[in-house]
Amino acid sequence: xxxxxxxxxxxxxxxxxxxxxEYKQKRDSCRxxxxxxxxxxxxxxxxxxxRVYKAKSKIKDxxxxxxxxxxxxxxxGEAATYIGIxxxxxxxxxxxxxxxxxxxxxxxxxLLEDKSIHMVFEYAEHDLLQIIGFHSHPExxxxxxxxxxxxxxxxxxxxxxxxxxxxxxxxxxPANILxxxxxxxxxxxxxxxxxxxxxLQPLFNGDKVVVTIWYRAPELLLGSRHYTxxxxxxxxxxxxxxxxxxxxxxxxxxxxxxxxKTVPFxxxxxxxxxxxxxxxxxxxxxxxxxxxxYPNLASFxxxxxxxxxxxxxxxxxxxxxxxxxxxxxxxxxxxRITAEEALNHPYFQEDPKPGLESFAGQPVExxxxxxxxxxxxxxxxxxxxxxxxxxxxxxxxxxxRPRVDA
Amino acid sequence: MAANFWTSSHCTHWxxxxxxxxxxxxxxxxxxxxxxxxxxxxxxxxxxxxIGKRLQFRQQVVATxxxxxKRFYTKNSMRSTDPSLVAATCIYLACKIEECPQHxxxxxxxxxxxxxxxxxxxxxxxxxxxxxxxxxxxxxFYLIVYHPYRDLTLIAKDLKLEESNLQTAWFVLNxxxxxxxxxxxxxxxxxLAALYIICVVHAEQYNDNNNNGGSxxxxxxxxxxxxxxxxxxSGILGHNNIHLAQLNSSNSVIKAPGAxxxxxxxxxxxxxxxxxxxGINNRNMVQWFADLNVDIxxxxxxxxxxxSLYSIWKDYEEEQVPAMMQALKMExxxxxxxxxxxxEAMQ
Lengths: 406, 347
Ligand SMILES: Nc1ncnc2c1ncn2[C@@H]1O[C@H](COP(=O)(O)OP(=O)(O)O)[C@@H](O)[C@H]1O
Ligand SMILES: [Mg+2]
Fold this sequence. Notes:
With about 400 residues, chain A is an alpha+beta fold.
């Protein structure tokens, strides 16, 4: 024993000290400052994982605008020290760096400064939450069918690309679906997205809850562990209905997490779904009795499926539109339409045909994204642009999001 | 991307030119020779593998960490950096990307254990986390890495490859991470090379053994798992029965199939019929490779690179590593003054 220890000590001393000072100095000295590359125009939003700023490139020929997502510096205690980059930021960087598609928000570059990650995205003037808000306040004014159909088609197009690449988004909701000033849809916020081709790692590992409750698929609400990309389609179905009516279709109340070990049963949310789609049966969903929360279903009252009669009161008259909606809100994830199939649905063959410029023919002029100067963290370095004042829509969907990080 | 290697960053940014890699080694080669440098690197790959085993990672996590480590050293010298900090950070980041996050403290603890005999590991959480930023930058934020394991499994299914052969090929892939082939070649080509090694090269070796009354059926005969999903990080290296190590001395068995009738002259064709039930029919495999719509020369290059690893491995002794590291890190006096003030302040 003693001999061994002596040996260890000796070898320890044999090595010259290895330090990385020189290496770091070299790297630090060639790293460009964000302020030297971008003018910060103002603050856009703050979410669970960080803050988003609007910026403009300092390069003369580059007139494009950007959104810089700054991840919260990881903190342990008071002082900001390095404690490692969050799983969410890692996922978003890894995936955005690989994905290139017209309907997926483009990542321009990633910058490191101030102990934080800054992801520089192409700028999108709108998002569906803001557009829906604009159409609902002060009074409700429905969107044109062309606009809705164009949003829906592009959203499906982006998600079909994700799914073809084995990526599940897992947090589709209006706030995460961006739209450029020209009306092009850009699916954003891949912080919860995951690759699902690695079958060796069960998907439920690590993150217990995904998808904001109103857009959460029934299999997740029933505790399914083997969920699939069909959960994204359910969310798109919910968004489709919301684009038409300007109200969330299943506006349930989230049951609060009581202790961290168990996931609460989301009775209220399921009731909201059953109220419209009727109770799920073994006929509609043959494997429903294999869902962990299946025994809880006995406590629900019986309700019929009223989706079609409800749809008839909505401003869109197309029957194919209703068929597509029903196909996306199919209880059985195996029967639910896929993104690829949905793109080929007869609804999109009907007039008005979808286009890339979703706003074409819209009589209204959309307000620009509100940006403010109130943020003290990354100060605006240029004059905040004057934008049309928009009534501040208080909506907790912007900030509510399941925490999943371990 | 994930479904399409050809559009992935791995394919478009991280299949490298050999000159670039050679450039990065220049500084190190002023202090140690290429074999020594290779051995030092092998030692660090071994550390990463050991920690992966102790923390029960899937092989893919270890492979990703090793690829990060290699990519880092295509831009930096070993001499000017601390490979143990680089290795720890690579493991930490790979765990997150491969969806099996580990607490940073856990990894530090494992590093301390693994390096107890070689300088220890004097970094705390904040140092590793800080270095993660540098690593991300060096990797150009391209974090998704493709590995040949999936390709191998798919091809094996297609070929109805015998379980034991699949397992051996799997071990060859594990060993391939100790070479730089993953920096130069597409994963499916590496998978094919592993198959080539066991089906063509090793089959000859096998048949020779068999004719001599040898008993080696699998190169890595100690593998116990039959399910590739649970295969560990074992390689052929480190097993007692390193038949492959002998192979490099008979490089002549590697012939391009179909080139100059190599397969006709193959001494094993006559004996292959007596090997019924052993799965590999050497002649069929040679034909199978010849029919593939891939660059067979490239497969042979990879094969040779992997086989030459086994020859270096033959005279690799772990005990020599401290001395090798010392040679690599040989310092002029002034560098002893260069103590990281931050580090000092923290102690
Ligand atoms: N590329 C962008 N252009 C304009 N605004 C954006 C962009 N990306 C995000 N935002 C705004 O910031 C909000 C939060 O960004 P998101 O990526 O969803 O982060 P979080 O993880 O905080 O939800 C979005 O809902 C949107 O309003
Ligand atoms: Mg969001």
